Amino acid sequence: MLRLDLSEIVRTVGMNHFCEIDEPPFVFDDIEFISPVKGNVTISNSGELLIVRGSFKSTISLECARCLADVRQPIDGDILEQFAIIGVEDSPRRDEAPAIVQDEDNEMPEGLFEGLVIDLRVLIRQSAILNAPLNVLCREDCKGLCPSCGKNRNLISCDCSFEATNRPFASLPELFRQKDTE
Fold first, then answer.
1. Helix (H), strand (E) at residue 93
2. Cα angle 106-38-33, degrees, rounded to a multiple of 5
3. 82-114 CB burial, b ≥16 within 10 A, e <16
4. Quick check: 101 pLDDT over 70?
5. How much is the pLDDT for 92?
6. Residues 6 or more apart from 13 whose CB is under 8 A from it?
7. Looking at 4-8, 135-139, 169-173, which range is the least confident one?
8. What's the rounded mean pLDDT across residues 81-90?
9. The whole model's pTM is what?
């Protein structure tokens, strides 16, 4: 389960909690994990900070940058986050709830905490997005989509004749030649 209750960890300075991650594939917001998510996370209370550290492996689904076909991309992600803890130190009342607050330098991802329950899927998603390649291709020689009719040129050849009429840098070679002759 990727939702953990941190009540005991937050109240106990120096406590470490180890969590094994072995989740079936899932879809979260804007990313789809298509193989099981496996890894581990350690959550530590340093007294002033809640430190979340771990790593995971999975496969995510991405779109080819040229033809928009589905591409399976293996992903190795690391998690290293820290959050300030307030209301714990020298509290005379054990029933007084400590709170986890946002660090001034880092914005806390939406949906990460619900009270003292952390949703590790949010951190896994964040790490997967940061580690995913920007332009993934279904194959090295992908021909992409036809700019005229939109057909996938890897699957079908079309009879469209496409000439780039809007070429903003088309005159650059002529400008360089003029400069060289001056």
1. none
2. 75
3. ebebeebeeeeeeeeebebeeeeeeeeeeebbe
4. no
5. 45
6. 45, 46, 47, 88, 89
7. 169-173
8. 72
9. 0.75
